[in-house]
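Exam revision sheet. Question 4 asks you to relate a sequence to its structure. Input first:
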Amino acid sequence: MKGGTNILLVMAAMAVVSIAAATMSGAQPRSNAAGGTRVAAVDLVKVFNDFEQTKAVNDAMKAYRDKVAQEADQKMAEIKAEEDALEKTDPASPDRQARITKIKRMRLEYSVWESLEKDFVSEQYVAWVKRTYQMVIDGIAEVAKKQGVQLVVTQEQVDTSVTKPEPLLQQILNRKVVYADNSVDISAEVLATLNANFAKLGGPASVHFGK
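Answer key, structure tokens:
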């Protein structure tokens, strides 16, 4: 059950996400539609990972995993104590078979418990990823509408620290936006909007990970 914190980088594999904004408000000049579609770009991976809710979920998940790891250590210590007691039991003792059965039961129960905990953590994690992703999409749409943008595309940054050619080439080939002027990058505005919305929901205190 011990393991490091899983950073929410699942979105890094996404190539492109576009948002068709809803009909603009009455204050939006019609000339925009006639002049063509307004496009903006966002670094979805950076926004997702720098979102305060993402950080809060990571912290909450780590705290829960640490708690589970402590419980696992305790259970294993109890099993070890029973095994040590069995070693000291006289082979002819009528209690020996009962101790063996007890140890088998404890190990079986531990195995089932461990499996259930792993499934629970995975399910909780996936639920929070989906919830966070939807909030990110809603935040992008909110900023896009305010700025009169009809289409938002993601731009991926190439990790130049990669030393092997295959992964580097794959990153390059997966890029869909090779250039976007800074004036159309709404990443900072989206991140600010997301963090403000998260604060309204209660911030880190609103993140519950565990039973």
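Marking note for examiners. The radius of gyration is 26 Å.
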